[in-house]
Amino acid sequence: MTTLIQNGQVYTNGQLIVADVVIDNDRITAIGEPGFWQGSIDQRIDATNKLVSPGLVDVHVHYRDPGETQKETIHTGSLAAAHGGFTTVGAMPNLDPAPDTPARVAEMVRRNQQEGVVHIAQFATITTGRQGDQLVDFAGVKKAGAFAVSNDGSGVQTAGTMYQAMKGAAAAGLPLAAHVEDNSLLFGGVMTASDRSRQLGLPGAPSVSESAQVARDLVLAKTTGVHYHICHVSTKESIAMVRFAKQQGVNVTCEVTPHHLLLTVDDIDGHDTNYKMNPPLRTKADQQALIAGLQDGTIDMIATDHAPHTVADKPADFTQAANGITGSETAFAELYTNLVKPGTISLTKLLDLMSAKPADLFNLNQAGHLEPGRPADLAIFDLQQSTRIQAADYQSKGINTPFTGDQVYGDTVLTMVDGHVVYQRKEG
Questions:
Q1: CA-CA to 414 of 20 to 30 Å: which in 33, 104, 180, 354?
Q2: Per-residue pLDDT for 254 more than 80?
Q3: pTM summary value
């Protein structure tokens, strides 16, 4: 079947052009000036005054399946991704059982392909059960289909374990994505130690719990040569160290979440636990450092850390509520509205951070680019009309986000995976 997407503002080869896109079955076959295509057409999609983007790529989502399917499943999580314009995601391994053996990884890869409506790349764990010091079979989990390894949700506490893990991951050619958190520096904190935590009377954890482990890991990464990736970087000290490490030739990349770019510790009122996440919201100075890191290239990509929970997991008591918020369905619109429209970053920069960069750096070779010969993975966004984010529209099982109710631009109109429409906005 031949599909023609007409008159869109198309992001291709790093630039925005008004163009038509021709799709033949599962592949993009041509991109050209409006009206250039003279061949037969089975389906037309009018993208006038709309953005046509490569399918977005999110290397950090939590799908809770198996283990906590009341929070999310592979299917509902992938529907949420499609709603947000994502066509490729990286699923974290904090599952029960965890994908910590080649057989378990292979089973997750099979289920992801069978039950997801978008492409789902699978993380394996770094250690058995995602805890302790027993390393996984890195070569084995890669052969089984893992695209990277991570213990996300838990920092690797022992330097010797991280050193050996980096050596093993490097030998297998696997990126190692680290949740950087030194548990001995948390002191029972449920938010960042700050003037705000003291005002609210809530226990605070110093932000050095992140940056101390970043410092350790950067030294180890330089020694081992591993592709070391820092998950959800959040402090000004971490950014400064990553910037310096890159100048020294360390093979380090990092991601930032939309919520750490758009919110700070001062947004916490102590009762709305949708503002509780890990790493916790940081200070205004940290937020400014993250934005500067986006602007100068220190931060390589944006990832949502999509973390669905049930309503019961998020009681009003900040000390008892689970960490994490959903992100797949709000990320692009919130970032376009709050960073691109005010001129903080360009639209092309945002698209690069959410498509080509994560795909290229994690060797997701079929993702992140809208070009002839590539898979027909794309999204169409409405940048002209504002919409209100509503919980009733979420495809995820989780509604735990502080962004519900926001008025935004950049709503997803349509998402296509391998030439098939997997999400389409209801009009009227």
A1: 33
A2: yes
A3: 0.98
Q: What are phi and psi of 106, to 5 degrees?
A: -60, -40
* Residue among 45, 63, 47 at smallest CA distance from 396: 63
Q: What DSSP line would sit under 63-97, residue for residue?
A: --TTT-TTT--HHHHHHHHHHTTEEEEEE----SS
pLDDT tops 70 at residue 428: no
What separation in angstroms does the CA of 18 have from each of 6, 48, 203, 350?
9, 9, 52, 18
Whether the predicted pLDDT of 161 surpasses 70: yes
- Distance CA(420)–CA(11), nearest Å, equals 20
Task: Give the E-state strand segments of 339-391 in sequence order.
Answer: 378-382, 387-388
The DSSP bridge pattern shows strands 378-382 and 387-388 to be: unpaired
* Burial (0-12, 13-18, 19+ Cβ within 10 Å), 405: exposed
Count of C-beta atoms within a 10 Å radius of residue 55: 30
Helix, strand or coil, per DSSP, at residue 11? strand
The percent of the chain in helix, strand and coil, each rounded to the nearest 5, is 30, 25, 45
Q: Quick one: tokens of 388?
A: 């209100």
CA–CA distance, 196 with 398 (Å, rounded to integer):
27
Separation between Cα atoms, residue 136 and residue 131, nearest integer Å: 11
Q: What is the mean pLDDT of residues 288-308?
A: 98
Neighbours of 6 (CB within 10 A): 18
Q: Which two tokens stand for residue 214?
A: 């970043």
Give the whole-angstrom CA distance, residue 83 versus residue 55.
Answer: 11
Among the listed residues 19, 49, 23, the one whose alpha carbon sits nearest the alpha carbon of residue 36:
19
Give the tokens for residue 315.
């009681």
> Measured between alpha carbons, how far is 323 from 303 in angstroms, rounded to an integer?
17
Spatial CA neighbour of 272 closest among 236, 316, 328, 307: 316
Cβ-proximal residues to 383 (8 Å cutoff; 6+ apart), any chain: 9, 49, 50, 51, 336, 409, 410
Of 124, 65, 125, 120, nearest to 90 by C-alpha is 120
Q: Which residues contact 246 (CB under 8 A, 6 or more apart)?
A: 252, 298
Whether residue 120 contacts residue 146, with contact meaning beta carbons closer than 8 Å, is answered with no
Asked if the model's pLDDT at residue 333 lies above 70, the reply is yes
Cα 192–91–348 angle (5° rounding)?
Answer: 75
In angstroms, the CA 108 to CA 300 distance is 27
